[in-house]
Write a structure and sequence with these properties.
about 300 residues; single chain; mainly alpha
Length: about 300
């Protein structure tokens, strides 16, 4: 008996429908938004991932390895053994240098301390008016100060006043007068300090006035009856002779420093001043000569100055 074929069924259509239902969520819609998303999933061009020479790390050059050679290629580094031997060889000298540096620092501190002590000592001397009595070595150190002349002049003048006052008090305490030689010898102790003052810059003019004042201090002692005996006259003449020698040196130093005086030194005026004082002493105490050599030097200088002005 022949087999009847099964009725026709569209099984392939059902399979296609079922497959369509199974994968319907994976289909991309055709909306513009979906197309833009699709574009974002596209692979980048392969040339974007290739090697780009411009993207090298900073500090490198594209020609560094091919065209530029190291500049120190010909300089071979020193061997470690040679460097070590050199360091070992100079190590004792480095230690000596460090030791000398430390000694230098200590010596600098000590020198500064000595300078501070010297400044304190000079201030102590000046405060007590003892500049005129210091030893020559200390005086030479103190004379380096720019104001040394004015300071020394003040101290000498102060000491002269003190000595003159002490001599007056001593004379007043005695019934008989002191001999002129006592006054002269005491006052002449100031001459070395005055000579030192004249040698300082700007000190000659100050020393000139001190010499005149020193002679006036002797003139204040004596003049009464009984004071003008032969011994007193001889002592006074010897005193003024010593002053005249000192004054000549002072005048010469003052003439050499005259360019720095303000106002300038008028020599003729001081010549008249000394002549007037000498005339008074001649009539008062019988003094025959008052700075004779000094007046000769000053008269010559005054005449020379007048001739230059003409």
């Amino acid at each position: 008996m022949p087999i009847r074929p099964a009725p026709y069924s569209d099984s392939r259509g059902r399979d296609r429908d079922s497959n369509h239902a199974l994968y319907k969520d994976t289909e991309y819609p055709s909306s513009p938004t979906s197309q833009d998303k699709l574009q974002s999933y596209r692979a980048q061009p392969i040339q974007d991932h290739l090697y780009n020479p411009s993207q090298r790390p900073p500090g490198t050059s594209s020609d560094a390895t091919t065209h530029t050679a190291p500049t120190n290629m010909n300089m071979a580094p020193a061997p470690d053994t040679l460097t070590k031997a050199f360091n070992e060889a100079i190590k004792p000298y480095l230690e000596q240098i460090e030791l000398l540096r430390n000694e230098l620092e200590d010596t600098t501190i000590q020198v500064q301390q000595l300078e501070d002590e010297r400044a304190d000592m000079h201030a102590w001397i000046d405060k007590r008016g003892l500049r005129a009595d210091v030893p020559p070595r200390i005086a030479s150190a103190m004379n380096s100060d720019p104001s040394a002349a004015s300071t020394l002049n003040y101290h000498i003048d102060r000491k002269m006043t003190v000595i003159n006052g002490d001599l007056h008090r001593l004379q007043d305490s005695l019934t008989a007068h002191l001999p002129t030689s006592t006054f002269a010898t005491t006052l002449l102790t100031l001459l070395p300090s005055i000579e030192n003052l004249a040698s300082l810059p700007g000190g000659a003019s100050l020393a000139f006035e001190l010499v005149i004042k020193l002679g006036g201090n002797l003139n204040s002692h004596g003049g009464d009856d009984g004071w003008n005996n032969d011994a007193d006259i001889q002592s006074r003449a010897s005193f003024y002779s010593r002053l005249d020698d000192c004054m000549v040196d002072v005048i010469r130093q003052r003439l050499s420093q005259a360019g720095g005086e303000d106002p300038p030194w008028v020599v003729a005026r001081d010549v008249k001043r000394l002549e007037k004082t000498g005339s008074f002493l001649r009539s008062k105490i019988g003094l025959q000569s008052y700075f004779p050599r000094s007046l000769d030097v000053m008269r010559y200088e005054a005449k020379r100055g007048d001739s230059q002005q003409l």
